[in-house]
Amino acid sequence: MTKYRIIGNMTGNSMDAIDLVLTEFDDDGTMQDICRLSKPYDKDMQQRVESLRTRSFNRTRKEIEALPDFQDVHDDYIRQIAACINEMCHLNGIDKSSIDAIGFHGKTLDHNPPSKAKFDGSAPYTLQMGSGQMLADLTGIAVVYDFRSDFIMSGFEGAPLVAPHNARISSLEGDGCYYNGGNTSNFAIIRGGKAILSADSGPFNEYTDNYVRLHTQDMFDKDGRYGYDGKLDKELLQKLFDFGRSYYETKLPKSGDPAYYHKDEIFAYVAAQNIKFADAVHTFEYFAAYIAAQGLTLVPDEIDISPNFILFGGGWKNPIVYNSFASLLQGKAFVLEEHKEQFAKLCSRFTNPPQIFASRFGDYMEARLFADLAYHKLTDKPWILPETEAAWHNIVCGVVAYPGQNLPHDYLCRAAKGWQQK
Predict the structure, then answer these.
(1) CA distance 380 to 241
(2) Cα separation, 228 vs 336, whole angstroms
(3) Could you please report the per-residue DSSP string of 80-142?
(4) Contact criterion met (CB below 8 Å) for 163 and 195
(5) Distance from C-alpha of 73 to C-alpha of 252, rounded to nearest angstrom
(6) What gap in Å lies between CA 13 and CA 206, rounded to an integer?
(7) Which of 148, 130, 127, 290 is nearest to 207 (CA)?
(8) How far, in Å, CA of 208 to CA of 111, rounded?
């Protein structure tokens, strides 16, 4: 039996840490984690990437690469990931020659999928930063990367990609609604070991993390300690939904991006209304749970929603978010007047009272996802999403860079804005 040992890497939109996991895959579909490492970013790196992301919005590859700090930010980003990979191998006595590949997501700077592009008549694109070639050269390990581009260039959303990985894990954790709480929330409905539907819902950690970073030295609201001192501001809750209404009400499947959430306008509104810090944090945390539940109200009637919810992603560790989500699914929490009928209908769709629990694979789910994607590329297996299966379209996604191969011009992904003109 052939075994593949692959390091999965994820640096999400929250930019709170570099997450790594070394996973071993067998031909029969089983997998086992060997070791893990999570390394927090310092605030300076987080701010530099956030600034670059803001200035990259709706720009072409040429325009972004011309930004005066682009190359420095990019190279520092890759060097930090490479250093973490080398450190994880050293700490765990892993011979790097035994590793087949690194599955590398890259840093998303912008995302304009078909579900959004159709509203303004623009052309779909996606934008991830990260040279697989540079990472391969610095680690001495082959890198599989640029997974989203293949889906965008084939007419699909390009995110979320986690559903097939959730389906693989369901053999151990059972059917249900697998819900990710990162910068953006997304879910996958898994039944019979198969992904039936997957989609992004909306902002999860985006508001809370950035607001806490703006006003404190902390990177996030650990254990909800700031939010516990506040209360729900119902007017702010309404404003939060109104600011992103066009996105939140978009039919499924859809994928999101922090640019859709109007963070700066929201924070300006909070300041203008003199909303207390703790009340703003509490309301942002409640809104994370609210949008996660609201996304479920968009699931078509013909698709059953399992009452089993398997949670993964660091955002669910916040007790205010977790408890608010549970209360919303039970019909026991505050709902905006315009959504009362929607949420009541959602609660009536559960055949049994909702059961919510944390995935045993949750902390490194997204990092392992990219190891799994790399495994599929190396074995020439398609990554089958619900929407690609419905369209009878099989996609083997990703690009492979080998140490010393000298792949040119791979600082940004293939489906960056303007890819259609090539």
Answers:
(1) 42
(2) 21
(3) HHHHHHHHHHHHTT--GGG--EEEE--EEEEEE-HHHHHHHTPPPEEEEE--HHHHHHHHTS-
(4) yes
(5) 35
(6) 8
(7) 290
(8) 21
Tell me: cis bond preceding 353? Omega within 30 of 0 counts. Answer: no
Report DSSP letters for 282-335, one per residue.
HHHHHHHHHHHHHHHTTS-TTS---SEEEEESGGGGSHHHHHHHHHHHTT-S--
Helix boundaries (H) for 66-113: 70-91
d(CA 321, CA 327): 10
CB count within 10 Å of CB 380 equals: 7
Pairing mode, strands 17-26 and 107-112: unpaired
Q: How do the pLDDT tens digits run along the chain, 422 residues long?
A: 689 999 999 987 667 789 999 999 998 778 999 999 999 887 788 889 989 999 999 999 999 999 999 999 999 999 999 999 999 999 999 999 999 999 999 999 999 999 988 878 899 999 999 999 999 999 999 999 999 999 999 999 999 999 999 999 998 899 999 999 988 999 999 999 999 999 999 999 999 999 999 999 898 999 999 999 999 999 999 999 999 999 999 999 999 888 788 889 999 999 999 999 999 999 999 999 999 999 999 999 999 999 999 999 989 999 999 999 999 999 999 999 999 999 999 999 998 999 999 998 877 899 999 999 999 999 999 999 999 999 999 999 999 999 999 888 899 999 999 999 86
Q: How far apart are the first and last CA of the chain?
A: 42
Strand-strand pairing, 308-312 and 355-358: parallel
**Selection from 181, 272, 182 nearest residue 235 by Cα:** 272
Report yes or no: 329 and 293 within 8 Å, Cβ to Cβ: yes
For 171, counting Cβ atoms within 10 Å of its Cβ (0-12 exposed, 13-18 middle, 19+ buried), the class is: exposed
Cut 0.90: pTM above it: yes
Could you tell me the sign of the dihedral formed by the alpha carbons of 183, 187, 193, 196, in that order?
negative
Largest CA distance in the chain: 63
Helices 43-56 and 70-91, packing angle to 10 deg: 140
Report which residue type is found at 131: S
Token pair of 235 as six digits: 């007017």
